[in-house]
Specification:
single chain, alpha+beta, 5 helices, 21% helix
Length: 270
């Protein structure tokens, strides 16, 4: 791995170590015999080692596991998964196409969304894929179709109960920045709430294109070390109770000069 020593007994660490001799930032196109269960490494760089799951895939069309060597941008994970899945689809329709044709996941030509049947995401604890029971090595799953090989029990880990789509995770992080929730507090909140609920910010649509995706610096803030912010003011209505904005006349404290004399109090008849 890039920054940490491999953990003894972790199968993904052994796969990452085996692929460590490959050039960085380049896909691999090794020759594997038909029916081989040896890990087929499709991509390796400083952040990821992606390999094709051949022993226990969840889909006959393709199942890729992306092991994390470091903590990269989630958008790069999504782009890499979509590219590798697209290469699997192309290789089945055209044998001349190999994973070596996959470009860099951060290139300008990287697709923003995948195919209609691409699924990229994480399995959240305490659930796990019982055929790939790795819990101590952060990794993402990417597969094609409805998972015709997973079965009902294994399919629980890939259902809405445990599956965490990467698009939904990106949407949650953008939501946190949009409403100025501290990032660390937000992550702790997500990790604690996910163990007891499934209340996530869902993208709502497959291959969703939200308007916020067109804003390059969405959620970005700027300021000085003393806490002074230079960020443009938000379009949201200021929350006066939280100290935002200028309080109106109705919210200012009353003073003797602003109180009406008793002579102006209307007489009430009973």
């Amino acid at each position: 791995m890039a920054s940490f020593a491999p953990k003894p007994g972790c199968p993904m660490c052994s796969i990452v170590s085996t692929a460590s001799h490959a050039p960085h930032n380049s896909p691999r196109s090794p020759s594997f015999p038909v029916g081989s269960t040896q890990p087929e490494v499709l991509w390796r760089d400083d952040n990821f080692t992606a390999y094709r799951e051949k022993a226990n895939p969840v889909s006959s069309k393709g199942h890729i596991i992306i092991a994390f060597n470091d903590l990269p941008l989630l958008v790069n994970v999504r782009n890499l998964a979509n590219r590798l899945l697209s290469s699997l689809v192309s290789s089945t329709s055209s044998p001349s196409v190999t994973p070596a044709t996959v470009a860099s996941p951060t290139s300008s030509t990287a697709p923003r969304v995948g195919g209609p049947d691409f699924h990229v995401g994480f399995i959240t604890p305490p659930f796990k894929d019982n055929k790939i029971p790795v819990t101590d090595h952060l990794h993402a799953h990417a597969y094609i179709g409805n998972g015709d090989l997973m079965g009902w029990w294994r399919g629980v880990a890939y259902s809405s109960v445990a599956w965490y789509s990467i698009d939904d995770l990106i949407a949650e992080i953008r939501y946190a920045f949009r409403f100025r929730m501290p990032y660390a507090v937000f992550i702790v909140f997500c990790l604690s709430s996910e163990s007891v609920s499934n209340n996530r910010i869902k993208s709502g649509y497959r291959n969703r294109n939200a308007p916020i995706d067109e804003v390059a610096d969405a959620g970005a803030r700027s300021g000085a070390a003393d806490g002074t912010e230079f960020t443009e003011p938000s379009l949201a209505v200021p929350d006066e109770e939280a100290g935002e904005g200028t309080p109106g006349p109705s919210s200012r404290p009353l003073s003797p000069n602003t109180l009406s004399p008793q002579s102006q109090i209307p007489h009430l008849r009973v």
